[in-house]
Amino acid sequence: MEQWWQGLEAAEEEGRPVANVFVMGSLAEILASFDIPMSFPEITSLQTAVRGKSMDYLTAAEDYGYSPDICGYVKVDVGLHLTGRDHPNGKLPKPSLVVSPNTCNTYIKWSEIWERIYGCPVYVLDLPGWRGTAAGRADGEDFERDRAYVEGQLRELIALCERLTGTPFDIDRLRDVMAEVNELSDLYQQLIAENRHHPAPFDAMLEGLNYMGIANAYRGTPEGSAFMRVALEELRERVRLGIGAIPEEKYRLLLIGTACYSHFRRFLELFHGWGGVFAHSEYMSFGGGGIDKGIAYDLDRPLESLAEQILSSSQKCFSGIFFSQDWQADVVRKWDIDGICYHGIKSCRTVSTGLPDTREWQMREHDIPGLFIQSDLVDARLWSDAQMKNRVDAFFEALASRKAQARR
Amino acid sequence: MGMLVAGVDVGSTQTKALVMDSEPRILGRSLIETGARLTEAANEAFRLALADAGVEEKDVAAVIGTGYGRYRVEFGDAQVTEISCHARGAVFLFPDTTSVLDVGGQDTKAIRVGEAGQVLDFCMNDKCSAGTGRFLGAASQALEIPLGELGPLALTAKNPVKMTTTCTVFAESEILGWLALGRKLEDVLMGVHVAIASRSISLLRRVGIEPEITFTGGVARNTAMVQLLEELTGCPINVSEESHYCGAIGAALFALDRALAGAAADARGGVLP
């Protein structure tokens, strides 16, 4: 990730264009084929929280007039741009282009802020019909129409990148990038599957987030695939040696929602202290840009295939978020999960809506114990340690009691 | 009398301590304001409970701390959350309990329990104290009426107001606003109780409303709250003279498990059923 930062800083110094993109639909394939470095504002925002600096930027944005209720990522990013783009990890580049899918309610409004500040073009990718129940819609009658619609938009982005870089589009270069994504996707799936072992060799809310960050920042590059290969080898060695993510694994958990970066270590301590490990997380799925769903690009017809896969992976990802009960039940079975933690984000309703209802449904239909807690991505004010610990402790007490009864 | 154990519940507003024997029977209890010094409150409550039971500290085989200040019970052998303790205590008081509602100082907890008092599911209010015991405290302060008189006075209401907030901070201004409009004190008070009861019921619905429901915590002493909960759930609500001590009772029962199991018990998991 340090190298990724160095790449962004070098592009700014050399006057090369940088694109601001989002994890859920970065269109890395096209941007990488033009060698346009990608800056992920969601990642750069969360990094300020991990470094304990997010409140400085949040406060700057709120002083400027942004409401406390707005997405924390947005406000940290606005604060960064208002205060000279000095990030704890380096100098944040000015965007020359913004690629904004409609996969989050906030992305487009966020993009308009950069457009106002820097006058950069905002390319909006309109993905139809992703917020429905039909995860298998890729087989539906409307799919070809939707695919053609997305492909047309990809051609518009290609024309925009050509204008911005002065470089003609090279379809063979796109094929190379897509081949790397195919491999990345395959490796990422294998990596997640390694955690079906007991003990789980990695924590999906610790090491898993590193894998996810690399998968986004290095999507479509040989470095991304190389990293995943090494990580996979390491995990397999850990499995062979019986080395778990934590010293003594007692409970295997699934996390629904995202991380709390302002209290990243503390959050994990609350669970690890009881011997709880996150064997899987929904975050590794939707936050990985859909690669966990299996991407297999047809390199003989790259643009058509890219449109197909974007459409299908976004549908699967978002059906996963909004109607994830079956996916959760499947993970519980395959990853041998003892309980599900639903982590609501105060400043992000997109990933938090419906969590209590899903928790109740899983308990009622599948007898899967669930814990509902709330904090935030980057806003330290929304963390209440005593109350968080109380809920987590009570959940583990109930799990302990349940296990003890099962043994009798 | 046999073996003696104790539970100390350091809550956000009050600290309760209770001494029990191995029958198990309650031998002594105490209740004091928690204040700002949690360790001192725990020590003092324990000392008073021992005195009430007429026993000495050296006779007590195990102590469990519970409540928000459970880690400040420095003489305790282990800590258990008040969620597990209220569940255990409620089933001790009323063995057929399936749901527990604990309206405490800053938390409201709805708990579904198993036959042995184990927690099957629980739901709590958000980190904001809206609709908790603190809300009644704010009403008591604003109206200058002792907490114990709020319930009986509310029950005399003929035309309760409809409170638009359960926010503890805004409660006072809304109460004063209704009084300024000329509404009767008892009608305003009943409005306050309805607001809390409605919010408690929505939490209870999350874990399932099934008889028998046991009401625990300090607010269980409030007769208007009990009546409203019965009306809203359509079920009789179990309330005991000991409801206020339910967390401490549960803690003492966990202490008894621990004492019976011996010192080999695990610091946390081992005290659980």
Which keywords apply here?
A: alpha/beta; 10 strands; B: about 270 residues; alpha/beta; five-stranded mixed β-sheet; about 20% strand
Set out the fold topology:
The complex is a heterodimer of chains A (408) and B (273).
Chain A lengths: L1 H13 L4 E2 L7 H6 L4 E2 L1 H10 L3 H11 L7 H11 L3 E2 L2 E2 L5 E5 L5 H12 L3 E4 L17 H23 L5 H24 L12 H11 L4 H20 L9 E7 L6 H9 L3 E6 L1 H4 L15 H21 L2 H10 L4 E7 L9 H12 L3 E6 L9 H23 L1
Parallel strand pairs in A: 1-2, 1-5, 5-6, 7-8, 7-9, 9-10
Antiparallel strand pairs in A: 3-4
Chain B lengths: L3 E7 L3 E8 L4 E8 L4 H16 L6 E7 L11 E2 L2 H12 L5 E5 L4 E6 L5 E6 L8 H11 L3 H8 L13 H13 L4 H23 L5 E4 L6 H11 L3 E2 L7 H16 L12
Parallel strand pairs in B: 1-4, 4-5, 6-9, 9-10
Antiparallel strand pairs in B: 1-2, 2-3, 6-7, 7-8
Helix pairs in contact in B: 2-8, 3-5, 3-6, 4-6, 5-6, 6-7
Notes on the protein architecture:
The complex is a heterodimer of chains A (408) and B (273). With 408 residues, chain A is an alpha/beta fold. Chain A contains 16 helices and 10 strands. In chain A, a hairpin with a 2-residue loop joins strand 3 and strand 4. Chain A is globular and about 70 Å long. The mean pLDDT of chain A is 92. Chain B has 273 residues and is α/β, with parallel strands linked by helices. In chain B, strands 3-2-1-4-5 form a 5-stranded mixed sheet. In chain B, strand 1 and strand 2 form a beta hairpin. The two termini of chain B are 23 Å apart. The C terminus of chain B is likely disordered. At the A-B interface, helix 15, strand 10 and helix 16 of A face helix 2 and strand 8 of B.
